[in-house]
Amino acid sequence: MTLSDGELIPQLGFGVFQVPPKDTTEAVTRALAAGYRHIDTAAAYRNEAGVGQAIHASGLDRDEVFVTTKCFNDNHGHAEAKRALKASLHQLEMEHVDLYLIHWPVPSQDKYVETWQGFIELQQEGLVRSIGVSNFQPAHLERIISETGVKPTVNQVELHPRFQQIGLRREHQELGIVTEAWSPLAQGRVLDDPTITTIAQAHGKTPGQVVIRWHLQLGNVVIPKSVTPERIIENFDVIDFTLSAKEMTAIDELDAGERTGPDPDTFIRP
Ligand SMILES: NC(=O)c1ccc[n+]([C@@H]2O[C@H](COP(=O)([O-])OP(=O)(O)OC[C@H]3O[C@@H](n4cnc5c(N)ncnc54)[C@H](OP(=O)(O)O)[C@@H]3O)[C@@H](O)[C@H]2O)c1
Question: May I ask the CATH class of domain 14-189+215-237?
Answer without folding.
Answer: alpha beta
